[in-house]
Amino acid sequence: MSLLDVDGLVKRFGGLLAIDDLSLSVDEGELVGVMGPNGAGKSTFFNCVSGVVQPDGGTVRFDGADVTGVDTATLARDGLVRTFQHTRQLDTMTVRENVRLAAPGQPGEQPVSALLRTSTMQETEAEVAERADELIELFELTRLADEYASSLSGGQRKLLELARVLMLEPDLLLLDEPFAGVNPTLTNEIADHIRGLNDDGMTLVVIEHELETLTELVDRLVVLQQGSLLVEGEPEVVLNDERVIDAYLGS
Ligand code: ADP
Ligand code: MG
To answer: What family does this chain come from, according to its entry (predicted)?
Structure first.
């Protein structure tokens, strides 16, 4: 059975059809890449799946349950977590505070943690602190743990964002352009972390705008164009597909 099953998804913004009858499934344990030119509907797809916007049609099933239109906080509690194209750390907090406050049940100003305050997943402060420090270590941010997030580079912010979402212990993690604006060294590092999470059993869907960045990383590539599925399949096959080449040249 698929972990994520999207069927006939439609999302309009006024007269614009951002998602046009999109059907897509992701199996448990898969690592899927979503590509497409700017404006293809990649982020909107994540927004519909993760409860950020309400779809106008279609259904989203997660782990067997219909979760169409369910809010972000509830989905996060159920194990479906996404990151945003533009990172949302609080610049007025340190790296360590940002990671700790991402945990469910922690007091804080972030929308997810605020809404999860009544969660049954309450952890003790010491447990949260320990897990936060482990993640900070994993992402090689220990040296920067007491610096304000505002002092981080673009790539370091992406690593911090990963550390934050992992505090939520997702089953399905949706990453929106985790490599955007990141230098080649950090890009490789982030790709290694994504691979490692997948090796440990996490299901991931990764959006990337550039051709080829995902080829080495993912099991399957999905290409969106104008809100619809253009091509999907093995990365090498998809990248050499005429329709994909045309879509990119035409954009
Ligand atoms: P991508 O992530 O593939 O670049 P998006 O999903 O961000 O594309 O956008 C798809 C289309 O929907 C674009 O034309 C974009 O301008 C439009 N769009 C996305 N979000 C909104 C919104 N909140 N309000 C109005 N239009 C939007
Ligand atoms: Mg986008």
So the answer is: Belongs to the ABC transporter superfamily.
Quick check: ipTM above 0.95?
yes
Out of 10, 43, 49, give the residue to mutate to test ligand 1, the one with the largest number of ligand atoms within 8 Å of its CB: 43
CB neighbour class for 96 (10 Å; exposed up to 12, middle 13-18, buried from 19) = buried
Count of CB atoms within 10 A of residue 150's CB? 12
Amino acid found at 191: A
Residue ranges of domains in the chain: 1-24+53-70, 85-183
Q: Which of 68, 31, 26, 45 is nearest to 195 (CA)?
A: 31
CA 127 / ligand 2 centre spacing (Å):
35
pLDDT (tens digit per residue) in 200-229: 999 999 998 877 778 889 999 999 999 999
User: Counting beta carbons within 10 angstroms of the beta carbon of residue 192, is it exposed (0 to 12), middle (13 to 18) or buried (19 or more)?
Assistant: exposed
85-183 CATH pick, 2.40.240.20, 3.40.630.10, 3.40.50.800, 3.40.50.300? 3.40.50.300
- In sequence order, what are the residues at sequence separation of 6 or more whose Cβ sits closer than 8 angstroms to the Cβ of residue 184? none
**This prediction's pTM:** 0.90
In degrees and rounded to multiples of 5, residue 211 shows phi and psi of -65, 150
